[in-house]
Amino acid sequence: MSIYEELGLKVGLEVHRQLDTRRKLFCGCSASPSEGSGPRLRITRYLRETQSELGEVDQAARFESRRMRRIVYEFSPASSCLVELDEEPPHPLNEEAVRIALTVALMLKARPVDEVHVMRKIVIDGSNTSGFQRTCMVALGGELSVDGLRVPIQTITLEEDAARIVRSDADEVVYDLSRLGIPLIEVSTAPVLNSPSEVTRTAEAIGRALRATRGVKRGLGSVRQDLNISIKGSGLMEVKGVQELELIPRVVEYEVRRLRHLLILIEELRSRGVRPEAVESQPIVDLTGVFEGSSSRVIRRKIGEGGVVLGLRLPGFAGLLKGEGDVRLGRELSEYAKAWGGVEGIFHSDELPGYGIGEEEVRAVRETLGAGERDAFVLVAGREQKAREALEAVRSRAAQAVYQIPDETRAALADGTTCYMRPRPGSARMYPETDIPPFPVSRELIEEIERSLPPPLESVAASLMKRFGLSSQLAWEVIDSEMLEEFEEIVRLGVSPSVVASILTEGLKQLRREGAPVENLTPAHIRGYFALVSRGATAKESALPVLAELAKNPSLTAEEAVERLGLKAPPLEEVVAFIEELVGAVPQDERRSAAGRLMGELMKRYRGRVDGALLNKLLMERLGAQRP
Ligand SMILES: [Zn+2]
């Protein structure tokens, strides 16, 4: 039994991917908006919680509206209309998007619904101007075979992408509207995945199934994975926004370490006899007086700005906040403080004295809070209202630490760890969208889509191997590189298929490892570069430096990058003249044996600019021609 099975790890996967339609889901705006084009306009709004039709207030909604941040939308009339601004009712569902979603459904053996009904899902962080996201289920059930493992698909859903966050701070959040309304497909599996590698392979398999439709967008930002993770005894963690496949196992492993640690803490706190009520009843105490003239820069600055220092005793928690490695209760409490109070962070007793807070101050804090040896404490410096809200959140999370791990919505971070975002939304958040008529899914439509289902990628791989002589591994790498279309196009220009394949796969991976921002490369860059190679304007050996240059300066054309790096091929006459000069300098009878040395000199001069095979051919011709 693996450690994950023993812990009862269960993961459900949701893969979200943008569809490559012409128009957005509910209006006529382009689904491939170019950001930053046209005039930029701004509007400002505030969102408030409202009761659902059942009279409940969603806790996730309450979380956001408590913060009462100003929400600013930036947009350009070229990529957003009145629908995105929520000033005009949405248009009927985009049929092209429904067809792609149905194609995915049939490929995954799911059951399409008879009528697609659009629903509203409350989203109150401001990422949707309307305060909800429109979503509609297209098919149910289905399954995927992942290396022999049968993974049930629960739902296939079509939804609108949210606005992109530009920046945010405690008082204001700014969104760009161009992404709002781009159609997204969401494929969710049942929570049956039991190890990090199963989750990764399933995500990969869903990705391949989606790409096989050739109806989805490619590249970074077009795909996002959410993971629903739990272990035996924990709440459910909804981890949002894992963009890269490679991050999935690290996120799962991190969550497992974190949840295990929190379970161990429950045991430990219980064995210490700590009760949640004892935590809940702790007062929040003003300690500003203790820190007058403190040598902590942060605290001095906060007090100087008119702020206060508040403290909270955590009875029986001594030594439990510092944790193990990257999982720490202190970090959990700090994330609650930031999320609920909008403060920058907390200080806790397991890391003090430190951060400029001295022994004397720690002693005074303990005395004022009545905190003994066995107790921990938490400090927050900032504006009074925020500091108080932060410590209230810390207090309630610490009380839970005694008996449960609460359900949470968390964000995946770039280092493979996660952080708390907000509570999980309740079930009171969905209601019907009455502005949009249902979309009937007729038998004729299903039959039509069934007849034109694209070939599965297995047969695409087989065909790449047969047509271009690629190995199975290289064929799959081309498919997984998401550059299949470019590959086929470039090979038609007459560049060697195995050269193109290895540059598009291994070559780009190498550049990424070396830190080049490969995600900036566009299909136009890549096509443009290989067009130069096919015309002999540069040699294929220049591929990595040129692509790295383009990644760093995406506004350049391939030709400009080649020129900038001095990798442009010289005119053929010049090359020939140089070869003749080299050959001429070698006495007649030594020419045969000099071939290797001369080729070395040519490569030294022309590497990356002129194709090696061409140089060799020209050299051999000259050596042969001048043979007596
Ligand atoms: Zn629009």
Helical residue percent band = 25-40%
Model regions low in confidence, pLDDT < 50 over at least 5 residues:
none
Q: Compute the gyration radius: what is it? A: 31 Å
How many structural units, i.e. domains? 4
Distance between the termini: 78 Å
**What small ligands are held by the chains?**
zinc ion
Q: How many runs of DSSP E, i.e. beta strands?
A: 22
Q: Main β-sheet, in a few words?
A: 12 strands, mixed
What is the count of helical runs? 21
The average pLDDT score comes to 90
Strand-pairing-aware structural class:
alpha+beta
Which descriptor suits the 3D outline? globular
Report strand %: 15-25%
Question: How are the elements arranged and paired?
Answer:
Elements: H1 3-7, E1 10-18, E2 41-45, H2 59-67, E3 70-75, H3 95-107, E4 111-112, E5 115-116, E6 118-122, E7 132-140, E8 143-146, E9 149-160, E10 164-168, E11 172-176, E12 183-189, H4 196-212, E13 223-230, E14 237-242, H5 247-271, H6 276-280, E15 285-286, H7 297-304, E16 308-314, H8 329-341, E17 347-348, H9 359-369, E18 376-382, H10 384-400, E19 408-412, E20 418-423, E21 430-432, E22 439-440, H11 443-451, H12 457-468, H13 472-480, H14 484-492, H15 497-513, H16 523-534, H17 543-552, H18 558-564, H19 572-584, H20 591-606, H21 612-625
Parallel strand pairs: 3-11, 14-19
Antiparallel strand pairs: 1-12, 1-13, 2-3, 4-7, 5-22, 6-7, 6-21, 7-9, 8-9, 9-12, 10-11, 13-14, 15-16, 16-18, 17-18, 19-20
